[in-house]
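User: Please predict the structure of the protein below. I'd like the answer in structure-token form so I can feed it into my own downstream comparison script.

Assistant: Understood. Taking the following sequence of 261 residues as input:
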Amino acid sequence: MMSPAALLGRVAPVLACIGLLALWQVASLALKNDSFPTAIEAIRAIPDILGDKESLINILASLRRMALGFGVAVLVSIPLGLLMGRSRGVAAFFNPLLMVIYPVPKAALMPIIMLWLGVGDVTKTLVIFLGVSLPVIYHSFEGAKAVEEKMLWSGAAMGLSPAQRLVRIVLPAALPEILTGCRTGLVLALITMITSEMIARQSGAGNILFNALDMGQYDTVFAMIIIVGAMGICLDAVFERVRARLVRWSEPQFDMPLSFS
């Protein structure tokens, strides 16, 4: 039988969402503003969006671009971060470049990339790649840097080459930190996806949102916000399940329930 604390942990997110929708409904009814529809009106617009073939194709195209940008960023950023964490020369070379790029909003790069590559999937995917890669590199770097030298010395004594030590010792030891960076990158992938589609308005969920705003369809605007939020929650929940399975060995185990007392 599930304990009250475990039950509360499962129900709490649902209660929080219901509470937010209730607060939204009350605020909308109190303000009586045409540009601020009620939560019920926005929820009623969701089936119309998902039931429209063109809108559904646009949303699926957004997810495809997001998955591609995220996947490429992870494949490139993890090895680079690990190398930076274990090699002073690699870190000294890439660190200044990353520090210059990191503070720049990725949406600010859209006009330049559009001039170079045009308005299309490549441009939007590249912006997602840039948004995701930096946190993954940082967390991979921190995870690799924290690996104990004794483990690497033991690997070298067993005859492992530097590349083998990186794959068989550094990567597993840094995996919890790497997955934390990937989780952050997943959220940023969703944000940059919507932002890029709102700027390069040809297709995608961001394009649906901005077109609805132009036409004064505010219920559709807020419905799209709910859809994007639901996408983020679902993606994060799936990733967290995968992460928990991969690094179960690193999770703290408690013999008694925690409290704030």
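That's the full token string. Confidence is low (pLDDT under 50) at residues 253-261.
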